[in-house]
Amino acid sequence: MIATFNRNTLQSQDFTDPYLQKVRAICMDWLRGRQVFTLQTSGSTGKPKPIQVTSRQIKASVYATAQALSLYEGTRALACLNIEYVAGFMMLIRAMELGWDLTVIPPGGNPLRDLPENCEFDFTALVPMQLAAILTDELTRTRVKKLGKILLGGVGLTPVQTELFSSLDQEIYHGYGMTETVSHVALRRVTGSTDPSNRYHLTGGVTCGTDERGCLYFEGEVTRHLRVQTNDLGTPDPSGTSFLLHGRIDNVVNSGGLKIQLEELENLLHRKFQEEGLSFSFYLWKRPDDRLGEALLLVVEGHPELKEHILPVLEKSVERRKQPKEIYFTESFLKTGSDKIDKARTFELLKTKGR
Predict the structure, then answer these.
(1) Of the given ranges (29-38, 208-217, 255-264), which has the lowest mean pLDDT?
(2) 303-337 burial string, b = 16+ CB within 10 Å, else e?
């Protein structure tokens, strides 16, 4: 199920598939001048909720992306993210507003598996898991350059993914943003970067600062010049044009008075597991504990037999006070509609079932 069109040929398309009918409806709403759209948050860090955004906000985001990545009329783009969420939705709007030639396929783990080999694009937006799947699949890894410039988003990159992607000979960026900011408001170059700090650079005239907790906020035309406050710990540079990202404040575990930043420890574990030849998905989580206040947990996508390989790595690589108090195993993680790991729901299900 593939469709290729632009704003001039959209109406002549005979879409019978329900997903493509939704695609056309969104595109036609934009072309007819709809002023307000309702987008759904992903639900990866809380309950999903609808967000209303105006056409003016959307246009500001569209042109910020176009300028930052040099994507103008005639761009050949691939849309393979869920259009029910902001990343997939914005691919459709960019194509209609900027005059792109857009190819649309339903979201899947490896989009190149669903496309003819002769397809070639100038720009593609993916989640990191999709790009990793492309590069680890013998049938598609040699075709990655046909995707053109790649914008990654939705979740952060693991050290393993960063190393895998950084060797590619094409422009790859990681975006920072959310539904409330109408997609990304900052970009970090993954390939060919001369900045070892992994700093995110703001786009579209957006400014940022931090509140009393050290959490980032953003203001700009994409937010209707209202402050959008996040729970992400960060350090803006003095000029206010870029920032370093440290992780979510609600991903800090206070275990017996020791504060553990989950993302930092996850990155360390990714490296250590890779060094030992271990390859599996995992995340760190927490639960209330009568003695410690909060207990650190490790949730693994894999068989419980992995435990005998995991424990020696933890003992060798992590100081005792920062080692997970329990390890949970599951055949597969639950996902949100935008294909992020639903950490809370996955853990709640495991807790009710027992480890």
Answers:
(1) 255-264
(2) eeebeeebeeebeebbeeebebeebbbbeebeebb
Return the number of other C-beta atoms located less than 10 Å from residue 131's C-beta: 24
CA–CA dist 278, 181 (Å, integer): 37
d(CA 53, CA 38): 6
Q: What is the largest CA-CA distance in the chain?
A: 66
Are 110 and 134 a contacting pair, CB within 8 Å? yes
Distance CA 102, CA 92 (A): 8
Higher pLDDT, residue 155 or 73: 73
Quote the radius of gyration of the chain (alpha carbons, Å): 21
Supply the DSSP string of 68-112, one letter for each residue. Answer: HHT--TT-EEEE-S-TTSHHHHHHHHHHHHHT-EEEE----S-GG
Q: How far is CA 162 from the centre of its chain?
A: 13
Nearest CA to 64 out of 241, 195, 200, 206 is that of 206
As a whole number, the mean pLDDT across the chain is 92
Point out the least confidently predicted range of 1-5, 176-180, 205-209, 339-343: 339-343
